[in-house]
Specification:
The protein is of the alpha/beta class. It is 32% helix and 22% strand.
Length: 225
């Protein structure tokens, strides 16, 4: 089956205190934008995938300029980024063929591995919709409406990661619904359409670079590779 990777890269990264005011996916990690490092991993996949990056129109020219100046000329489609992640993925899906497999991966998770992603594609071909996850290790509490909190059973919760991988017909159909505020990832959209998702083991180092502390951790990891 033909394989696609959608990378939503339209966010502005409000939790990342960048002195330059740059979106986090464009920030430097070891001499390259984080987005490029994430894309480079996807280009190493076998069989090859088609990459679609959803990007705000205001960033497209900057990105194209960077690609030419840095000789980063690997082919990819630039789709329009939307108001939310939902809209960015929806726009990218217009370039995806039915009868294929499609992964959606955060632009700022540059530490996935080829084996991990290929395994997710294979699992999606069997199950239709797969989401990598990790168990919670810290104690958690549930916030109450009155401002208090109560202990919660952490065994009933997991962290979810990307890439989340789907049969394209399932994902395309799911994204025909109107946007809802609880659509925080693709699994939530697919579940809302009535299709179940299958959890598979995640990857410990596959963390999302969201804060300055995350960026420092990523730089330290990169030095050890």
């Amino acid at each position: 089956m033909e394989r696609y990777v959608i990378i939503p890269a339209g966010g502005i990264g409000q939790r990342m205190a960048s002195a330059e005011g740059r979106p986090k996916q464009m920030m430097n990690l070891g001499g390259k934008p984080i987005l490029r490092r994430t894309m480079e991993l996807m280009y190493r996949l076998e069989p090859q995938v088609k990459i679609i990056v959803s990007m705000l129109p205001s960033l497209k020219e900057e990105w194209k300029k960077y690609c030419f100046e840095a000789d980063f000329l690997q082919p990819h489609i630039l789709a329009d980024g939307g108001m939310t992640r939902f809209h960015s993925v929806k726009n990218a899906l217009s370039y995806v063929s039915k009868g294929s497999l499609v992964a959606v991966h955060d632009a700022v998770r540059p530490f996935v591995t080829e084996d991990f992603v290929n395994g997710l594609f294979e699992a999606a071909q069997e199950h239709g919709a797969v989401v990598p996850s990790l168990p919670l290790v810290d104690s958690i509490r549930e916030l109450k409406a009155d401002g208090g909190s109560k202990a919660a059973d952490r065994s009933r919760f997991v962290f979810v990661q990307t890439p989340q991988v789907f049969l394209s017909d399932i994902l395309i159909s799911a994204y025909e619904v109107p946007y809802q505020a609880f659509f925080t990832d693709d699994a939530s959209v697919v579940e809302a359409s009535g299709h179940p998702v299958t959890l598979v083991p995640g990857l410990k180092d596959n963390f999302k670079i969201t804060t300055p502390e995350d960026l420092s951790r990523a730089a330290e990891m990169l030095e050890k590779l």
